[in-house]
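Supplementary Methods. Inverse-folding protocol.

Structures were first reduced to a discrete structure-token string of length 173. This string, shown here, constituted the complete conditioning input.
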């Protein structure tokens, strides 16, 4: 099982200088979106930390890496999902309405990323800023604080050059 706790990335970065950065994903099997009169369901999406581009180097076709997932209510689209919604129009700063567990959110598009290859371990057709998690996921306020009780996240870390993952595991025991 590849799932981790929401506190895994921040804790590893704080306790081990070899951990340079992390990105957390909270996966959505499917989400409903509305753009104008069009309503559609889209799979393979996640909440993601702004550090996404510090960990992954997928090409950003529109937008700026340093600002694309910073604001709480923003969305980054894959190239194919952007075309599905907007056709050949520029999607930048257009607003998409997203629905999650009966809660509506207006999300401006802050970037378009090249489609992640089919053979990637973790693929996304959309990424929503992780900061929305505090208002969108309904498990109660305690769940949104860093804790070791809720393991529905995938966390990727970036290690310093010449860091041995095996030695890092030994440090943790």
């Amino acid at each position: 099982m590849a799932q981790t706790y929401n506190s895994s990335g921040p804790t590893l970065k704080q306790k081990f200088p070899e951990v340079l950065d992390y990105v957390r994903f909270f996966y959505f099997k499917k989400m409903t979106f509305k753009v104008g009169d069009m309503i559609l369901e889209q799979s393979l999406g996640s909440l993601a930390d702004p550090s996404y581009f510090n960990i992954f180097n997928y090409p950003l076709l529109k937008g700026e890496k340093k600002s694309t997932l910073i604001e709480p209510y923003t969305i980054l689209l894959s190239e194919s999902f952007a075309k599905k919604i907007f056709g050949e129009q520029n999607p930048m700063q257009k607003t998409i309405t997203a629905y999650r567990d009966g809660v509506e959110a207006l999300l401006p598009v802050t970037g378009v990323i090249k489609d992640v290859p089919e053979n990637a371990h973790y693929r996304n057709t959309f990424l929503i800023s992780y900061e929305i998690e505090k208002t969108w996921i309904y498990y109660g306020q305690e769940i949104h604080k860093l804790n070791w009780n809720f393991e529905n996240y995938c966390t990727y870390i970036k290690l310093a050059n010449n860091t041995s993952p095996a030695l890092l595991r030994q440090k943790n025991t």
